[in-house]
Amino acid sequence: MAYPIPVFHFQVEWGGTKIGFSEASGLNIETEAIEYRDGNSPEYSMQKMPGLKKYDNITLKRGVFKGDNEYYDWLNTIKLNTVERRDIMISLLNEEHDPVMVWKVRNAFPVKVEGPDLKSDGNEVAIESIEIAHEGLTIENEG
């Protein structure tokens, strides 16, 4: 019997580094519909055709570690209209740690870094997040 792959076993690679994250979200692709009607069309409705693709920003979350400034180092590469862009691979893994589904993100750069919520009565791990914009997302589902 075949079972769906659980979401908790994944890895993220950026710039050749594999980093552990607790959450990855925003892996969405949307195609905007273009409505068009020719003036001499016998139909009294619009035609619809596919338009430009749109990609959501991706958010990656992980625990805070002493001396780890990788989020902020990447964010600090922004100078006017230039930034260090990276290709990112997010892989959903099977029981043998092999990728079964891979999201390939092209020309990503950080747009937001968010520190942890600090609470004096909290009992959870400090989590930081980075939101990245990108110029393309392809999906490979190994069969």
Describe this structure in words.
There is one protein chain. With 143 residues, the chain is mainly beta. The chain has one domain: Pnp Oxidase, Chain A (Roll), CATH 2.30.110. It contains 1 helix and 10 strands; from the N terminus they run E-E-E-E-E-E-H-E-E-E-E. Strand 1 and strand 2 form a beta hairpin.
Structural features:
single chain, 143 residues, mainly beta, Pnp Oxidase, Chain A, eight-stranded antiparallel beta sheet, 4% helix, extended
Q: Total strand count, please?
A: 10
- How would you name the CATH homologous superfamily? Hcp1-like
How would you spell out the order of helices and strands? EEEEEEHEEEE
What does the average pLDDT come to?
89
- Main sheet record: 8 strands, antiparallel
Q: Unreliable segments (pLDDT under 50, ≥5 consecutive)?
A: none
By CATH, the architecture is named Roll
Domains (count): 1
Structural class from helices and strands? mainly beta
Helical element count? 1
By CATH reckoning, the class would read Mainly Beta
Instruction: Kindly state the percentage of residues in helix.
Output: under 10%
- From the alpha carbons, calculate the radius of gyration and give it in angstroms: 20 Å
CATH topology-level name: Pnp Oxidase, Chain A
Task: State the end-to-end distance.
Answer: 16 Å
Judging from the principal axes of the Cα atoms, what is the shape? extended
β-strand amount: over 45%
